[in-house]
Structure formats: structure tokens, C-alpha cells
Amino acid sequence: MTESPHPPISKAVIPAAGLGTRFLPATKATPKEMLPVVDKPAIQYVVEEAVSAGLHDVLMVTGRNKRPLEDHFDRNYELEEALSKKGDSARLARVQESSDLATMHYVRQGDPRGLGHAVLCAAPHVGREPFAVLLGDDLIDPRDPLLARMVEVQKQQGGSVVALMEVDPAQIHLYGCAAVEPTTDGDVVKVTGLVEKPDTADAPSNFAIIGRYVLDPGVFDILRQTEPGRGGEIQLTDALQQLAVDEKAGGPVHGVVFKGRRYDTGDRGDYLRAIVRLACEREDLGPDFRTWLRRYVTEEM
Ligand code: UTP
């Protein structure tokens, strides 16, 4: 068997230091990543996704309200003992799930200076290996594995890989947008350029970048030189644009086109859709909830 020329990926970086202004006042004292989606905080789904793609070393980039994030992935001995004494082994297992999930590390982003800056805070931990970035407020349905496919594409192609989703052209101004060329793989495109939140008229395509990346460590050198861009923030998209045009810097950049279910839990409408959909599909809650929902839609709307 010939060995892959590309080193394996074992580290995931989860930026979770944004201000979450779209969700105020709920996010005044709680990070938006801790908002519950049914009965688990959104961030737990994200860490579970990293682990199921084989990445067990997780670095979370946290901000001013970091305590709840750290506590959630730590042991809670008092609670565990109380549940144990009651003989409530089912709940005890659920409480322990999050602390047993992965090896967690934390780094503080003092000032939320943008996603690119948050990723740069991970440089000392990541070193010179390729690594994954999963946005803490972007929830990919657990049944639609995306990151594992991106890791596979990075292994084959080297360089960096982004996740793309086709959106209504009228919505492209809300996303980073990619200019692409087809490859021989149906779900993979070559990214030839990237632009952050373009107007519809200037957008090179309707391929939006969503919150999963597998990056060459060369991105750190570029981020160190990247000036604040759109919104006065250091934009990851601006650094990726450089990677796309410079193979020596950490390119090429490929895109995996995702057609599955994805929710931006930092957006109130999408957050509600995520809860309704995941609750409907749960074995324990789904049957009753679906019955109620059907009645609500037909009789009260
Ligand atoms: P968003 O663009 O959703 O920004 O960040 P935000 O500031 O958190 O949210 P709104 O728009 O004010 O409601 C995408 C991801 O990048 C992280 C966020 O936590 C989120 O997971 N992020 C963003 C950082 O970690 N640091 C930053 O400086 C900016």
C-alpha cells in the first residue's frame, strides 16, 4: 500500500467567540453556541460531528462568556453523584456524554476581531498540520456527513477544502461566495476565487461557503498579514482567496458541494427550524410532538 503524501488530520478548531448580536438578548450573558437545540446545546452537535469525522482533539476559541462552554464539556461531580444516588443511570449517561466526547482545549480570543482572527488564535495549538474548522453556530444534520467527506478530499488533493452550498442568488450577500470550476468528482469543485458577502450582481456564483473548512496550516501565515476587511473584521474568506490563487501558500482550494440539511443556529428562524425538525425525528419526543404539530398547523394556523 502506498502512503498518502498528506499528513492525517486530527485537530478540530471551533470558533465560538462571536458576539451573537442577532440573538440578543438571549446571548447577553450566554454564548449563542450554548442555546439548546431540543435538549443539547448547539455546540455539542458540532463537537460530536468533529469526533465522528475522526477528530478527537478539539480546540475551542472562546470569548467573554466562556465559562458555560468549558463547564459543559467538563465533569460535574455534584450532579453526577446526585443522579447516581437516585439510580438515574439514563440521565447520568447523558450528563457524562459531553465530558467523555473529546480531548478539549480552550484559547481565548480577547477581542472578537473576526473569524480570521479567531482561527489565527489556534496557530500555537495546531502547529504545522492541516486542521479542520467547524463554526460553533453552524449545525449540520448528523445524518448528512460532510466533514468526513472533506477530510477525505483533503487527503486526496492536499491544500485546503471548503464546504459549499447552492443558495438563492438573492441570498448570496449573506455569505462568502466562491468562483468554481468542475472536477471529475461530482461533489467536488476547484475554487478559483472567493469574495465575502458580495452583492448579487457582483457574485461570481451562487455557491455559498458554509461553516466547515479543512485548512492547510499555511493559512496562519496569510492571516498574520491579512488586514481587516468587510465590517472591519479580519475575514477568513480573504485569507482563503489567497490560498486559492497560490498553491505554495497552502492551496489549492477545493470545495465539497453539500446538499444535506444545515442550520445556522445563530439565526432565529433557522434555529427554530432546527429544533422543530430534530424534535420531530427523535424517537422519544417525535411521535407526540408530530401529532401536536400537525394539529397546530391544521387547526390554529
Ligand atoms: P458570525 O458571523 O455568526 O458572528 O460568526 P457573530 O458575531 O457571532 O454573530 P452575529 O452576527 O453578531 O449574530 C461565525 C462564527 O465565528 C465565530 C462565532 O462565534 C461563530 O461561531 N466568531 C466570529 C469568533 O469566534 N470570533 C469573531 O471575532 C467572530
From TrEMBL:
One of its GO terms (molecular function) is UTP:glucose-1-phosphate uridylyltransferase activity. Gene3D superfamilies: Spore Coat Polysaccharide Biosynthesis Protein SpsA, Chain A. The keyword Nucleotidyltransferase applies. One of its GO terms (biological process) is UDP-alpha-D-glucose metabolic process. It catalyses: alpha-D-glucose 1-phosphate + UTP + H(+) = UDP-alpha-D-glucose + diphosphate. Its EC number is 2.7.7.9. InterPro entries: GalU_uridylyltTrfase_bac/arc, NTP_transferase_dom, Nucleotide-diphossugar_trans. Pfam families: NTP_transferase (PF00483). Keywords: Nucleotidyltransferase, Transferase. Coiled coil: none annotated. Residues 11-276 form the Nucleotidyl transferase domain. Belongs to the UDPGP type 2 family. This is UTP--glucose-1-phosphate uridylyltransferase. It comes from Streptomyces sulfonofaciens.
